[in-house]
Design goal:
The protein is an all-alpha fold. It has 14 helices and no strands. It is globular and about 65 Å long.
Length: 317
């Protein structure tokens, strides 16, 4: 219900007010032309992307936390987000994004998959979640270094500003072309992650216990990594880097479930859609000389959750 309310509010809120009556008329093909242009060219693609990307980040965080049995896991832990961002930066830096609109998302997805391959190479045959996390940190660090190098060698300040602006994440000025790029990736990635609900429940007993219950750990890991790489890669390609949604959402929905990993997958997707869309509404409503970046807002939301969890685990003292 919250996701639905967030989606409707996302259509209503903006610099040009559109009442519910005008909105309904425009959606049904009637109403005035200005309302239809604002709705279909600006707000509807933005709302759809907010819901879809939020859902993907939410279900990714829930699946990774269940698979790695680590409450702080999210897509960035495995390097998928940073690698996808590096691919997009390469497209922007070398001007490849101007060749065709599909080049940027394709490079983001390919680098995400490349990070997946490197992750497997670094992790080797180990099934240990700790090994996987360490390999993910190495991949993320490497991608971050590549992004920093691109910024350092940027040919002019404007190119560096463009890259930095994109990296902060935003849903501003997105169109149905962006929706067409992101939605198939998110659908495939989400389906792969939802596939392994029962395997995640079995993994709560440990790897030996899951194997005894008949879980194929290698196949589960492949589906998990592909789901994250494809889904998050497609999302990052059109919105830039938006962090912490995958970290926050599972902790918000877990108290309302039986706390089993499979029980929080779908609720995390819905809650992630609602959270990111409400955050995007906040970006539009906060008075500022220029619109705040969505990644900045989600970072401010996520850091307290991160610190609270650390303090609860008594890792600071």
């Amino acid at each position: 219900m919250l996701a639905g309310v967030a989606g409707i509010l996302s259509l209503l809120v903006g610099s040009a007010p559109i009442g519910l009556g005008r909105l309904f008329a425009a959606l049904t093909g009637g109403g005035d032309q200005i309302a239809r242009v604002i709705l279909f060219e600006l707000r509807l693609p933005r709302a759809l992307l907010g819901l879809a990307v939020g859902a993907m980040l939410g279900v990714s965080g829930a699946a990774l936390q269940g698979y790695l049995r680590n409450p702080l896991a999210e897509p960035a832990v495995l390097g998928a987000s940073n690698a996808a961002a590096l691919g997009a930066v390469i497209a922007l830096y070398f001007g490849l994004a101007a060749i065709h609109p599909a080049v940027l998302p394709l490079l983001a997805i390919l680098t995400g998959l490349g990070a997946l391959g490197l992750l497997f190479l670094l992790a080797g045959n180990s099934e240990s979640p700790l090994t996987l996390i360490l390999a993910g940190i190495a991949v993320a660090t490497m991608a971050g270094a590549g992004i920093s190098l691109a910024l350092n060698l940027a040919p002019n300040p404007f190119a560096a500003i463009e890259i930095m602006t994109w990296l902060m994440g935003s849903l501003e000025d997105r169109s149905f072309a962006h929706v067409a790029v992101a939605l198939p990736c998110i659908a495939v990635g989400g389906a792969l992650l939802l596939w392994d609900g029962r395997a995640l429940d079995a993994l709560a007993l440990g790897e030996d216990g899951a194997t005894a219950l008949g879980v194929d750990l290698r196949a589960t890991r492949i589906r998990m990594m592909l789901g994250v790489a494809i889904g998050v890669g497609g999302a990052v390609a059109v919105t830039g880097s938006i962090g912490f949604v995958g970290l926050i959402v599972p902790h918000l929905v877990r108290p309302f479930t039986d706390r089993s990993p499979s029980a929080i997958l779908l609720p995390s997707a819905l809650a992630g859609a609602a959270l990111l869309t409400f955050a995007d509404l906040g970006v539009r409503l906060i008075p500022a000389s220029s619109e705040l970046k969505l990644g900045v807002v989600t970072a401010f939301l996520g850091v307290p959750v991160f610190l609270a969890h650390l303090m609860r685990e008594r890792r600071l003292w």
